[in-house]
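Q: I have 142 residues here and want to know how they pack in 3D. Can you give me a structure?
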Amino acid sequence: MTGTAAGLLVKPLGRIFDALDRGDVDAVLVVVEEICHPEVELTSGIGSAVEGRTYTGFDGLREWFGDLVGAFELSYNDREFREMNEDAVLFLSRLELRGRGSGASVIQELGTLFESKNGLVFRAVTYRSHRDAIAAAEALDA
């Protein structure tokens, strides 16, 4: 990665996914408050498909990550970050979700497009396939 605004987000974004793997919502929120705009918007390919909503601001992200970690053990495998342009980072992985109550396991491709302005993430959109995430990232420059 280069020294662009987007490139500088890669390391802290990695810390978020490390914390999610550990189930440490407090650590996630520390990083979120460091690198995100207070009115950040998250559209989750998982939660938004079920509830049809976007999570807004630090309180919205606290709710989403708390619910996610409360319901599942998470493992983000085969991680890759791509700097798409000066203000966008694409995260690709293979997410394994294991239900805390049921023990049922699901493995899902995952792609999250992070858009930033003035060095702060203002939007994150998660897609349930690498193909869809890459297409959305490429459309930013179209």
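Q: Anything worth noting?
A: The mean pLDDT is 91. The beta strands are 36-43, 55-56, 72-85, 88-99, 105-117, 120-127.
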